[in-house]
């Protein structure tokens, strides 16, 4: 127990509960949900496992120090007194990420600059030299969060956002964030229990995340690097054991996962990304217009997609959403169809009543994850059959 410490997993709005469930399933302790974050307790090996296995986390932070700040000088002094040489060599490099919600500090970049100054001044005073700043591949990435007059300093164990899984080499105009895709799938109840279709798959992110959930493949297994690999206490043998253990939990999948897109360029990119993720055995990408398609299987179908919207493509949004509703009603009986929409007027054009509406954000745009149940035959008959 002595080697356990508190960590914070950052996430997107609306995913706090499913991230907490993920952490519980992985074996985390003292799990507490917050706003776009979940705190938990574990050891170094669990920190490695969280980065490798969590589908809905953006970052795993290791809190280091907290203090009150009422001025720029207090921030500088408090940062400078911390023994940064325990984590970073004088010849190393650092990067600072900052977020501020404060009347005292109003500019996050300025807070990052003052933090950097304090750290390099400490090194310069002690060693006559200072570490470099490297925003892309630093040896140590530090996270500063100021809420009113309270400053939390954390070490960022992830580095690049964990949505960067490492499989997406090619993208279309507006690829969906991998964490958003995985979170929507989990919210929809997807666990690999039936056939799956993304009828507007773009660069293939949703089918890939669906396959990784279905097969219980660690989402970041294809990632090139985590920030903790540059830490002084990096334990490669421990990480390899964690990775090996996670890979042993992969399960077989006996249904079909398909992605459609009418654009040849998107189909090509999606197939390339599926190949990069080593999932070609599980996912089939086809060039097909959803509005000219129909349900291929006789059993229940789980559908989830991210349709285009006004900001992304030049389309008649209301007409487009009406066609979504018509296609589902006419050609996809026996389907649970989920999709995210950010145009609330367009939702009315679908012509179906959503059985669930979940508030989410697609980037800066507020949206709703909508569920439509398309029954086999009439709704009344479906209830009688069940």
Account of the protein in words:
This protein has 386 residues and is α/β, with parallel strands linked by helices. 32% of the residues lie in helices and 25% in strands. It is built from eleven helices and 15 strands. The strands form two sheets. Strands 2-3-1-4-8-7-5-6 form an eight-stranded mixed β-sheet. It has a seven-stranded mixed β-sheet with strand order 11-10-9-12-13-15-14. α4 links the parallel β5 (93-101) and β6 (132-133). α2 crosses α7, α3 crosses α4 (108-127) and α5 (178-187) crosses α6. Residues 380-386 have low confidence and may be disordered. InterPro entries: RlmKL-like_Mtase (IPR000241), RlmKL-like_Mtase_CS (IPR053943), RlmL_1st (IPR054170), SAM-dependent_MTases_sf (IPR029063), THUMP_dom (IPR004114). It comes from Gramella jeungdoensis. Residues 46-157 form the THUMP domain. Keywords: Methyltransferase, RNA-binding, Transferase.
Characterize the largest beta sheet: strand count, sense, and whether it forms a barrel: 8 strands, mixed
Order of helices and strands: EHEEHEHEHEEEHEHHEHEEHEHEEH
Residues in helix, %: 25-40%
Beta-strand percentage range: 15-25%
Class by helix and strand content?
alpha/beta
The separation of the N and C termini measures 50 Å
Write the layout of secondary structure elements.
Layout: E1 5-10, H1 16-26, E2 29-33, E3 37-42, H2 44-53, E4 59-68, H3 72-80, E5 93-101, H4 108-127, E6 132-133, E7 140-147, E8 150-156, H5 178-187, E9 195-198, H6 205-214, H7 236-248, E10 257-261, H8 264-276, E11 283-287, E12 301-305, H9 317-331, E13 335-341, H10 344-347, E14 356-362, E15 365-374, H11 379-385
Parallel strand pairs: 5-6, 5-7, 9-10, 9-12, 10-11, 12-13
Antiparallel strand pairs: 1-3, 1-4, 2-3, 4-8, 7-8, 13-15, 14-15
